[in-house]
Amino acid sequence: MKWLSHDTAQAVDLDDRGLLAPGFKADINVFDPASLHLHAPEVVRDLPTGGRRLVQRAAGYRATIVAGQVVYADGQPTGALPGRLVRGARPSPLAAAAGHH
How much is the pTM? Predict the structure, then answer.
């Protein structure tokens, strides 16, 4: 599914993402296809000043890994928050290693 991850990242100049390779950033979802299930959507009021949003939870995800850390395990947050805001283009680690930017 290169087109879904790496190609999409390259389309917005995030050339350091979307591949499972040394130096690249990639978030990973580990799931069990036999137990995937969407729950009914629900309205939650967890935004500032009681603002509401629609949430639809899913079952069957075993883990979500961000920056090498498990952030969800069996649908429950682990407390790890390694993600960071990304601003602007990011060069490929391969180009950076070769001295190209």
Answer: 0.70
